[in-house]
Specification:
This protein is an alpha+beta fold. It has two helices and four strands. The protein has helices at about 25-30, 55-60; strands spanning about 10-15, 35, 40-45, 65-70. Bound molecules: iron/sulfur cluster (2 copies). One iron/sulfur cluster binds near residues 19 and 64.
């Protein structure tokens, strides 16, 4: 899969209170950046996330979102 540097402009965030911990995002993330915290909700490792948006597209609950990273 081709990954441009552009992607790092974005990152994924999710609405943890609405996440159903299905684990779909964990499986589709190409960077292994997502884990399920204590079986309750998905959490994203910002350091690993390249902002590709695949998790957003695949989240069945619509609670994963690709957002612009704040300028450092
Ligand atoms: S945006 Fe891409 S790299 Fe970041 S958590 Fe989602 S699937 Fe993984
Ligand atoms: S795919 Fe969506 S609902 Fe499922 S664990 Fe990931 S963020 Fe939560």
């Amino acid at each position: 899969m081709y990954i441009s540097n552009d992607m790092a402009k974005y990152k994924a965030i999710n609405e943890q209170d609405r996440c159903v911990a299905c684990g779909v995002c964990v499986k589709v993330c190409p960077k292994d950046a997502i884990s399920i915290y204590k079986g309750c909700y998905a959490q994203i490792d910002e350091e690993k996330c390249i902002g590709c948006g695949i998790c957003e597209k695949n989240c069945p609950a619509g609670v994963m979102h690709k957002v612009l990273r704040q300028p450092v």
